[in-house]
Design a protein that fits this description.
single chain; 275 residues; alpha+beta; 7-stranded mixed β-sheet; two-stranded antiparallel sheet; 9 strands; 43% helix; 19% strand
Length: 275
């Protein structure tokens, strides 16, 4: 099976595939609109006879607060399902969304009754439910608004076998976005000055030379110093506020070297035997 970018000559075959597979259908001008605006995001699957047996129709939402891609339509003929075609089509389009258009995530809608599609998006492709849109479809069926973030952040809910949604990942994401601020005892909207003042206070309390009997004092001080480097850097802080993820710097305060050597010497010092 060949996965390739769609061409204008493929649009009639894509429309025919859509009509055979899905209740949501589009006029030909809508296919042209996608082809002319985002030709990099349309992919088709050809069988060995050159017949179009599947496609993905996608676009960019470039004016949104977070630039992101959107899957307008995905379909594979029944005769060619369970061959991994839908997964390959989706991944091909997603790669171009991220690397060509700089998308932060990709979104889509799926009927709440479509268990097979929900399983594909959630289990195979890593999408999570962002919201439920009531009466989204023409026949008044609800839709899952699903998203996949390219930085793999936690953000949404997982559909369970009984149809309920487990929102624990979203709750964990909210907790992670507050974790560093709570460690510094400041609010999430704290100013840089407030964060600097919090670090000044913490650094005085945690300095290893104030805790000579605490062999873990150095590691604790170093970790808080690394966290301060995240919160005091505008770009790193913005990344943390958005995704709840952060990278701790390996850079270390040179003034800690003496304390580290002292701590290591204490760990290696032989214990005195009792007489």
């Amino acid at each position: 099976m060949l996965i390739r970018r769609g061409e204008v000559e493929d649009l009639l075959s894509m429309q025919a595939c859509n009509l055979m597979c899905l209740p949501e259908n589009y006029q030909m001008k809508y296919y042209f609109y996608h082809m002319l605006s985002w030709p990099q995001l349309l992919y088709v699957c050809e069988d060995y006879d050159g017949k179009i047996v599947g496609y993905v129709l996608a676009k960019m939402e470039e004016d949104a607060p977070e630039p992101h891609g959107h899957i307008t339509s995905l379909a594979v003929l029944r005769s060619h399902r369970k061959l991994g075609i839908a997964t390959r089509l989706m991944r091909a389009s997603q790669v171009d969304m991220e690397h060509i258009f700089g998308a932060e995530y990709v979104s889509l809608h799926v009927r709440v009754s479509n268990e097979a599609a929900t399983h594909l998006y959630q289990t195979t492709l890593g999408f999570r439910v962002n919201d439920i849109e009531t009466k989204y479809y023409a026949d008044n069926e609800d839709a899952y608004d699903m998203r996949y973030y390219f930085d793999k952040r936690l953000h949404g809910g997982k559909v369970q076998t009984d149809g309920t949604i487990d929102w624990s990942e979203r709750d964990e994401a909210k907790r992670k976005k507050l974790e560093l601020y709570e460690m510094f005892a400041v609010k999430q909207d704290a100013t840089m000055k407030q964060i600097a003042n919090a670090w000044d206070k913490l650094s005085q309390e945690l300095k290893p030379d104030k805790h000579p009997d605490d062999l873990d004092a150095l590691a604790k001080y170093t970790k808080f110093q690394q966290i301060y480097q995240v919160l005091s850097n505008e770009q790193e802080r913005a990344k943390y506020d958005k995704s709840g993820t952060y990278t701790l710097s390996d850079k270390k305060d040179p003034s800690l070297d003496a304390a580290e050597q002292k701590s290591e010497s204490k760990k290696k010092a032989p214990k005195k035997k009792r007489k």
